[in-house]
Design a protein that fits this description.
It is a multi-pass membrane protein. The chain is mainly α. The chain is built from 12 helices and 2 strands, in the order H-E-H-H-H-E-H-H-H-H-H-H-H-H.
Length: about 300
Amino acid sequence: MDQVNGSVVTEFVLLGLTQSLGMQFLLFLFFSILYLGIILGNLFIVFTVIFDSHLHTPMYVLLANLSLIDLALSSTTVPRMISDLFSDCQIISFHNCMLQMFFIHVTGGVEMMLLIAMAYDRYIAICKPLHYLTIMNSKMCMFLVVAAWITGVTHAVSQFVFVINLPFCGPNNVGSFYCDFPRVIKLACTDTYKLEFVVTANSGFISMGTFFLLIISYIFILITVRQHSSKHLSKAFFTLSAHITVVFLFFLPCMFLYVWPFPTKSLDTFFAIVDFVITPVLNPAIYTLRNRDMKVVMTRLSQQLVNFREVT
């Protein structure tokens, strides 16, 4: 790799979360439990949507894809973060650092587009219920999922092609527990001001614009419902509250990480942990506990499990 891109640096140094042995054990337990919750919670949604025919609708297909992306996004950083807790020197190779950055932005871009697709689905379902089955058919659902993946890959590649060819010949301390474009770019042995602006515009401003677009769209849906029937407003708000919560959990840390990068190491670490750990573990809980259909399916599955135990 060094000969290919003229780089001297073959590995990067990551930042440990803590040097206290007691805190390391607490964080190991904390993150291990949360990561297990991320795996089980998101896979539960995926397999429930796949095997329960009542959930073979665009809303739940998009939700299953969101759960897969949450699991993938978390897996780009959390397993390594856990394994590095007891390591004296957190080292990541040049190749692995580049791959980590690439997949973070692929999964992040896909999740961003899936949230837009889910907002569009709710708009059609609430504001145009008579046309829902016509507009949100299987072809449209497939188109939205494919478009999300194309956008995510394009978003990552548009930054990756510039970073992979930068010369790295000096400092190699990333200053965080994971690799990301803004931090790695600053380690390059060249003027990267224009590239830093491109990354900020690509990740930061797009995140900010998408966030406000989604919030405005949800407000528009609520206003539309109120104009037609005020008695249905509370029901619509209850339905959208889960989506709004997920949007806030995902986009607010992104905006701080890319529009206002590294205010302090502790704050930067906090927002990164929210994006990679807290949001992926809360999303399944939000969508299952605040969704009537999912609660019905969970009740039915638990009854089937009880009946199976009684038979055996």
